[in-house]
Write a structure and sequence with these properties.
Elements (H helix, E strand, L loop, with lengths): L2 H13 L3 H5 L2 E9 L8 E2 L1 H12 L4 E12 L2 E11 L5 E13 L2 E8 L2 H5 L6 H11 L1
């Protein structure tokens, strides 16, 4: 399977909000970085990555992802995408994301997302940020 094919499966799993399946594409020491949030939000390893995803996305009904561009060069894949977060309360949040994925031995070794914090936060339902912050503190 090519790295691009793995990335497509990865995002299919993410759309289904199946965080264990998403993490299964990651190496045991994979780093997932949300660049706008900083080092404190970095998760290392599949179980930490799945937990981080549950903390921020676990209540979503769906996470519709549209890939606009995907470029593979050796062990690096760049993905430009838009995520639409479907909250059970009816709110929708649309987030453009640019991501870098680095592979080693067929697994994702690095997942780094670049997005705008203001764009995301101002579209969320009331109480969302406090809930995410609480989940991060508990995790």
């Amino acid at each position: 399977m090519t790295h691009k094919e793995t990335i497509h499966r990865f995002f299919e799993d993410l759309e289904r909000v199946d965080f264990d399946a998403v993490a299964s594409h990651c190496a045991s020491d994979c780093r997932y970085e949300d660049v706008p949030v900083g080092e404190a939000a970095t998760a290392v390893g599949p179980s930490a990555i799945a937990a981080k995803l549950r903390g921020g996305l676990g209540d979503l009904e769906a996470l519709v992802t549209t890939i606009h561009e995907i470029v593979e060069d050796g062990d690096t894949v760049l993905v430009e995408r838009t995520e639409v977060w479907h909250h059970p309360t009816g709110e929708r949040a649309s987030l453009p994301v640019m991501a870098v994925f680095k592979f080693e031995d067929g697994k994702i070794k690095l997942w780094r997302d670049y997005w705008d914090m203001k764009t995301l936060f101002e579209q969320q339902p009331p109480g969302w940020l406090e809930k995410v912050a609480g989940a991060a503190a508990d995790g």
